[in-house]
Design a protein that fits this description.
With 77 residues, this protein is an alpha+beta fold. The protein has one domain. Helix content is 53%, strand content 18%. The chain has a two-stranded antiparallel sheet. Helix 1 runs antiparallel to helix 3. The longest helix has 26 residues. It is elongated, with a radius of gyration of 17 Å. The two termini are 25 Å apart. The model has no long low-confidence stretch (mean pLDDT 83). InterPro entries: YjiS-like. Pfam families: YjiS-like. This is YjiS-like domain-containing protein.
């Protein structure tokens, strides 16, 4: 089975690709899945940044918590 695993070294993503008798197709699929996850994080953080104080209160977050979250890089969970 081919697997792409996301790890972090010094705050930057590092990828480890492990193949055990499988096709490049699986590696490509895993990579596309990883990119989709990154895009989703980026979009969620953009939406979070647009919320006003009342909306943040409704979901139980402070502006400081939001600022902390939106400062993260797209690869950081």
């Amino acid at each position: 089975m081919t697997m792409i695993r996301e790890t972090y070294q010094g705050g930057r993503p590092e990828f480890r690709i492990r193949a055990a008798g499988n096709t490049i197709y699986n590696a490509g699929r895993d990579l596309l899945s990883l990119i989709a996850r990154w895009q989703e994080r980026h979009e969620q953080r953009r939406q979070l940044a647009r919320l006003d104080a009342h909306q943040l209160h409704d979901i139980g977050l402070t502006r400081g918590e939001v600022e902390h979250e939106i400062e993260k890089r797209f690869w950081q969970a």
